Amino acid sequence: MSAVSSFYEYQVFPWLNDKLCADPALQALRSETLAPARGKVVEIGFGSGLNLPHYPAGVLSLVGVEPNTGMHHRALPRIEGTRLPVQIVPGTAEHMPLPNAEFDTAVSVLTLCSVGQPRRALLELRRVLRDDGRLLLMEHGLAQQSGVARWQGRLNGVQKVLACGCNLNRNIEDLVRSSGFRFESMRQFYAPGIPRTHGWMTVASAVKA
């Protein structure tokens, strides 16, 4: 990695990501997604802690998995301002240094788009979830409309460069189902105020199949 790309990924992108994710529509979706969270929570793609204000009272503790150290620095003020005990694990979603069946809730918010191996990440979440645990998702991905999907394919290469590996055209529903989960609830829609190529959302709750 060059010095320029390293500076962008660890210094510029964390700031840019916070700005883009501050959209009020996305904040409302975070609250909706995380409302069922309870007990011990593991969150992949913890980032700068944007989900912290949206966790309900039933959450007892949180382990956040995040490989970008630039995000760690931006997360500190939010961690200090929350009631939750928060532990940051500097690892990847595909290889989490966490024990089996440890967590009541697993969370992925705008993360499966950018992990290198999304199915592997979901299998890891399944591994660390208790048998009665729940996976909560808020992800953007491949649109159902063919015209939008074609544009997602055309833009994907540029998106991956500008957004540090983020993909526009991953089929979130298929990834979850093929990784040993079944949906309790799911709704898919275009988020208001976001370009359709970037705003086809899946908000869902899933359990082990």
Strand content: 25-35%
First-to-last CA distance:
40 Å
Give the strand order of the largest sheet, numbering strands 1, 2, ... along the chain.
Answer: 3-2-1-4-5-7-6
Let me know the largest β-sheet.
7 strands, mixed
Radius of gyration computed on alpha carbons:
16 Å
Order of helices and strands: HHEEHEEHEHHEHE
Number of strands: 7
Helix/strand/pairing class, anyone? Answer: alpha/beta
CATH topology tier name = Rossmann fold
Number of structurally distinct domains = 1
Give the CA-based shape. Answer: globular
Query: Given this structure, which CATH class is correct?
Result: Alpha Beta
Instruction: List segments where confidence is low: pLDDT < 50 over at least 5 consecutive residues.
Output: none
Q: What proportion of the residues is helical, as a percent range?
A: 25-40%
SSE layout and pairing:
Blueprint: H1 3-20, H2 24-34, E1 39-44, E2 59-65, H3 69-80, E3 86-89, E4 103-109, H4 118-128, E5 129-140, H5 146-162, H6 172-177, E6 181-190, H7 196-199, E7 200-208
Parallel strand pairs: 1-2, 1-4, 2-3, 4-5
Antiparallel strand pairs: 5-7, 6-7
Folded structure, characterized:
This protein has one domain: Vaccinia Virus protein VP39 (Rossmann fold, 3-Layer(aba) Sandwich), CATH 3.40.50.150. 38% of the residues lie in helices and 26% in strands. It contains seven helices and seven strands; from the N terminus they run H-H-E-E-H-E-E-H-E-H-H-E-H-E. Strands 3-2-1-4-5-7-6 form a seven-stranded mixed β-sheet. Helix 1 runs parallel beside helix 3. The mean pLDDT is 91.
